[in-house]
Write a structure and sequence with these properties.
The chain is 18% helix and 26% strand. It has helices at 31-41, 64-72, 116-126, 137-146, 166-172, 228-235, 249-257; strands at residues 2-3, 9-11, 14-19, 22-26, 54-60, 84-89, 92-98, 106-112, 194-195, 240-247, 279-280, 282-286, 289-300, 305-313, 322-327, 335-342. It comes from Sphingobium quisquiliarum P25.
Length: 359
């Protein structure tokens, strides 16, 4: 992950070491531009190139290992968590990164874009008798919610709009690329948007530190890095943490029922979650006291619950704590929805399961 000087997250991604001096960083959003900026600013002896010419498929779930081994015709049990190696699928050299974005055993398959359909068809055929299903964008992000993967533009804004990162923002944030272009995916235009009942005083109120997002265990203070001083101070006095909220069923039903009333309805709850790129942030209250900010509201079909992430004051972080979320934009009809604090991740994390123990 990359932080600004104040210890707030700009973005995160996956860094893969392909050779002694060759690395590949995978991410979306302005963190890619931030990396380019810091490479140039720091005067490092390094060169880079940007590309989106690879296909990336994720195969995740209880049968993921069996599906992938059937497709390759060889065992993959030697691949450790967040490690990778190549294996062939129909004469295509595919890189298997063990990851698991559903919180289960899983692999991200990477290869040349022109071979994408060959590999996709091979995976679907291999998994046909194991119940494989394809997920689209309307459901994929529910995995992020259940398995607790906070996501840029959904759970935090990239922290680049304030000093001392202002120079970077002015260099890279002024132009608006064409919607849907490769540059658009790395732009500020798609990330600096907020909705919901939460009302901040400045853009920094929508920034989050890695500690608040539940990534404290990934922070190592054995080397120098940008934002280290701020994070060291925060670690000594942690004020907010990440949890899951379970939304009250009847209160959620009331929001939908309002669509059939003569009175102005509550703001619509898109199902299973909102689809456009914005941080939909809602106030979490204990009476009249603001105690947290809820994001990534979504309906889990597996658990049959409306859930959300929340960054919450530590005094209210104990699972079972009952609070309310304010649903509705400022100036609109608003609904106080009862919520209960739960663990995060909400589902059991099975990503690191021993592959040799799998059937």
């Amino acid at each position: 992950m990359f932080c600004n000087k104040a210890g707030k997250v700009i973005g995160e991604g996956v860094l893969q070491r392909l050779g002694e001096d060759e690395f590949e960083f995978q991410a979306r959003g302005p963190v890619v531009k931030w990396l380019e900026y810091r490479l140039a600013k720091g005067g490092y002896s390094a060169a880079y190139a940007t590309s989106i010419s690879k296909f990336k498929f994720q195969v995740s779930g209880p049968a993921a290992l069996a599906v992938c081994e059937k497709a390759t015709g060889e065992p993959l049990r030697d691949i450790g968590f967040m490690r990778f190696r190549s294996a062939p699928i129909r004469d295509v050299d595919v890189l298997f990164l063990r990851q698991g974005m559903a919180g289960e055993i899983g692999f991200e398959l990477q290869g040349p874009s022109e071979k994408a359909e060959i590999v996709r068809q091979a995976i679907l055929e291999a998994g046909a008798d194991m119940g494989i299903r394809q997920l689209g964008s309307r459901t994929a992000m529910i995995n992020h919610l259940e398995a607790a993967f906070p996501t840029v533009t959904h759970d935090y804004l990239p922290a680049v709009g304030d000093e001392p990162e202002r120079e970077f923002y002015e260099l890279y944030g002024s132009a608006t690329p064409v919607f849907g272009s490769p540059e658009w995916f790395r732009s500020f235009a798609r990330t600096q948007k907020v909705k919901g009942s939460y009302e901040g005083r400045s853009v920094t109120d929508w920034y989050r530190s890695p500690i608040e997002l539940g990534w404290a265990k990934s922070i190592k203070f054995d080397h120098d890095f940008y934002g280290r001083e701020a994070l060291e101070a925060e670690m000594t006095d942690i004020k907010r943490v990440r949890r899951t909220l379970i939304w009250n069923k009847q209160d959620v039903v009331d929001v939908f029922a309002s669509l059939f009333e003569e009175e102005t309805p509550y703001d619509y709850m898109e199902f299973p979650r909102h689809q456009w790129n914005a941080m939909y942030a809602n106030k979490v209250m204990d009476g009249d006291r603001l105690v947290g900010v809820a994001t990534s509201r979504g309906y889990s079909y597996y658990f049959r619950k409306m859930l959300s992430h929340v960054v919450i004051d530590t005094a209210y972080a104990e699972p079972g704590t009952e609070l309310t979320v304010i649903w509705g934009e400022p100036g609109h009809r608003q609904k106080a929805i009862r919520v209960t604090v739960a663990q995060s991740p909400f589902k059991q994390d099975n990503r690191r399961a021993d592959l040799n123990s799998q059937a």
